[in-house]
Every structure is written in structure tokens, then in C-alpha cells.
Design brief:
This protein is an alpha/beta fold and 239 residues long. It has one domain: Rossmann fold (3-Layer(aba) Sandwich), CATH 3.40.50.1820. Strand 1 and strand 2 form a beta hairpin. Helix 3 packs across helix 4. The longest helix has 18 residues. The chain is globular and about 45 Å long. It starts with a strand and ends with a helix. The relative contact order is 0.12. The mean pLDDT is 97.
């Protein structure tokens, strides 16, 4: 097995973005695609590594880009400045997500009939929004994501299966927000699961997260358990 990566430029509304494709080049067969939606800082090494990990599992991994080629935040303040415009314009966010799906699906290794997306933190919100739009994807996985409803998808049916992997003590998405999301997904007739991990805060999959005052703390057990849950989920939706 040899996982290789390549940069892929794509455009949306004349803005240039750059995703990273990761594939096992030992195989020549088309295979399911799993997009990775980055956290609030932009398409970083963490997202690319997840795409590589997915490639090792036999998928086409695609670390998407929501901010623009080369745009990365280097502080909480910069990250917030990058994320906020998309939180305030969820239609734009959703359109960029769909463009990323279209780009990933067009890769020569991709089986475009089998597409899923996973996302971390802000990226978790993004993949939920992708599902909320009724996008033709098999499933989405939100890791310690934000849950706020976009307001422009009320009444739409969610066809994608949904897996939410959540820290119960996440201050950015407290238990009442989790219950609201469950009600929303039920109303949209989604096939959904929420796995809540006790004594677990935001960003629990990121080994660099160590800011209890901000509510971001790595949790090795939740990290391992959530990855196993995602692995089973992808095997199920692509069966």
C-alpha cells in the first residue's frame, strides 16, 4: 500500500480553492469518496492527515477547502474572522460544500455513486449543512461539530445518513443543543445517530487541543471510540 496525495484547484464564484486528494495508488479500481471538512482555521495538516487515514482504509480521501487557496488562520481571532462570514451566509457555505463534493466526485479514482463527508468542529457544522440541503451523499459524520440550524432548509427531507460524534461537556454545543439537533433530524426524516461521550469537551480528536478555559481538550478514549464508530458507519453506508 502506498498512499499518495495531490493538490486539486477548483473554483466557486471566481474564487480559487485548493483541496488535497489522498489515494492508495496500489489500486486502480474506483472507490468510495470521503470528504474531510476542516475546522475553523482552514484546510490544515490535521484535515490532510485524516484524508490520508481514509485513503489507507481504501477510500478516496479529499481534504476540502472552504476559505480559498492558501488561506489559513493562525490565531483564535483570525480563525473567527475566517469562519464568521460563512456562519452568517449559510447559503454560501452550502454552495461551497456542494462544489467540493462535485470536485471530489470528479476525481478519476472516485466512485461518484458512493460519497460521504466527515467534518471537525466548524467542519462538523458544514457536513450537517450539506445533509440539510438534501445533497446526494450517502452519509455525513460530524465530529464535535456546531449544531445551529441554518434557517434555509426547513421542510427539506434529509436523505443522507447522519452520525454525530459529540462531547457531552462541549461548551460550544451543550446538551440542549444536542436535543434540538435530534428533533430537527427527526423532523427531516433522517436516519440519524448521536454518540455522546461523557467527561468530554470540544475538539476531543485533536491531540493539540489543551485549553480547558476555552473548552477544547483532547480525549484519547473518545478519539479512538469515535473513529471506530465512523469506520463502522462508512462500511454500512457504502455496503
Amino acid at each position: 500500500m502506498a498512499v499518495v496525495t495531490r493538490d486539486v484547484e477548483y473554483t466557486h464564484r471566481d474564487k480559487v480553492f485548493e483541496g488535497v486528494v489522498a489515494v492508495d495508488n496500489a489500486s486502480e479500481t474506483q472507490r468510495p469518496v470521503v470528504l474531510v471538512s476542516h475546522a475553523w482555521g482552514g484546510r490544515d495538516d490535521f484535515a490532510v492527515q485524516k484524508a490520508k487515514d481514509l485513503a489507507k482504509m481504501g477510500y478516496v480521501g479529499f481534504a476540502l477547502d472552504l476559505y480559498g487557496k492558501g488561506v489559513l488562520g493562525t490565531s483564535k481571532e483570525e480563525n473567527r474572522e475566517l469562519m464568521t462570514p460563512l456562519l452568517e451566509d449559510r447559503t454560501l457555505l452550502q454552495a461551497r460544500m456542494q462544489t467540493a463534493v462535485d470536485t471530489a466526485s470528479a476525481q478519476p479514482e472516485a466512485d461518484k455513486t458512493k460519497v460521504a463527508a466527515i467534518g471537525y468542529c466548524f467542519g462538523g457544522l458544514c457536513v450537517l449543512d450539506l445533509a440539510r440541503t438534501g445533497a446526494a451523499v450517502s452519509g455525513v459524520v460530524s465530529y464535535h461539530g456546531l449544531f445551529s440550524s441554518p434557517g434555509n432548509t426547513v421542510g427539506r427531507k434529509i436523505s443522507a445518513k447522519v452520525l454525530v460524534l459529540h462531547g457531552y461537556d462541549d461548551p460550544m454545543a451543550p446538551p440542549d443543543a444536542m436535543v434540538e439537533l435530534a428533533s430537527e433530524l427527526t423532523g427531516a426524516q433522517a436516519d440519524w445517530q448521536i454518540h455522546a461521550y461523557g467527561s468530554t469537551q470540544h475538539a476531543f480528536t485533536n491531540p493539540a487541543a489543551d485549553d480547558p478555559d476555552f473548552g477544547t481538550v483532547y480525549n484519547a478514549d473518545a478519539d479512538k471510540r469515535s473513529w471506530r464508530s465512523m469506520t463502522d458507519f462508512l462500511a454500512d453506508i457504502f455496503a
